[in-house]
Design brief:
The protein has six helices and seven strands, in the order βββαββαββαααα. By secondary structure, it is α+β, with helices and mostly antiparallel strands. The two termini are 33 Å apart.
Length: 201
């Protein structure tokens, strides 16, 4: 696998500034999000870039469109459907943190937007072992919960209430979690991120 020199930006990586930028005239549409999912050559999710940046990568032959919208961008002598997912033509090695940052959005995504106690719609997060009793703010102690269950549980333990978790909470893993915990998920990215149909953000 090709490696980049220390401190340099891999060719084709969205941070590169060496690509030619042709004049682009996109045709706007309500379905256009203005964001494109960028995949590595191995189809591993890398990051999200602007639609304009994705088009430049495709025109420079540093990426290929995997999925497109009905919108079209016109650039001098070519017309190109606006991509919603693109894949780099060459593999790039990018260092990422080993751990997944804990956030409210990420917890909701991991737990399918549902309360782990009753199965209703989640509106808050709850510490399984209350922080007032020494519980930690970590992946294995935080779950999605509805307001009613969160209020009922308060600072009591599950044993005191006779409640049980359907499964122990755990730290999510996988390349997709670099994106899932921090932004709204475009439904057209689901196939590449492994997101269940019930998850919209």
């Amino acid at each position: 696998m090709p490696r980049s020199a220390p401190g340099s930006t891999p060719a084709g990586h969205p941070g590169s500034r060496r690509d030619p930028v042709p004049p682009l005239v996109p045709v706007p549409s309500p379905t256009t999000t203005g964001a494109t999912l960028l995949l590595n050559a191995t189809y591993e999710p890398l990051c999200v870039v602007s639609s304009r940046r994705a088009i430049v990568l495709v025109l420079a032959e540093k990426a290929e469109s995997v999925d497109v919208t009905a919108d079209v961008c016109h650039a001098e002598t070519v017309s190109l459907p606006v991509p919603v997912v693109v894949r780099l033509t060459r593999y790039v090695r990018v260092p990422y943190p080993a751990s997944v940052p804990l956030s409210r959005r990420a917890v909701f995504t991991r737990d399918g937007q549902t309360c782990v106690y009753c199965g209703g719609s989640a509106t808050s997060i709850d510490h399984v072992v209350p922080r007032s009793r020494g519980g930690t703010h970590t992946w294995d102690n935080v779950v999605a919960a509805c307001r009613r269950c969160n209020h009922t549980k308060a600072d009591r333990s599950l044993a005191e209430l006779g409640w049980k978790l359907p499964r122990p909470p755990s730290t999510p893993s996988g390349a997709a979690w670099r994106l899932l915990g921090h932004r709204t998920v475009d439904p057209r990215w689901r196939e590449w991120l492994g997101v269940p149909e019930s998850v919209s953000a």
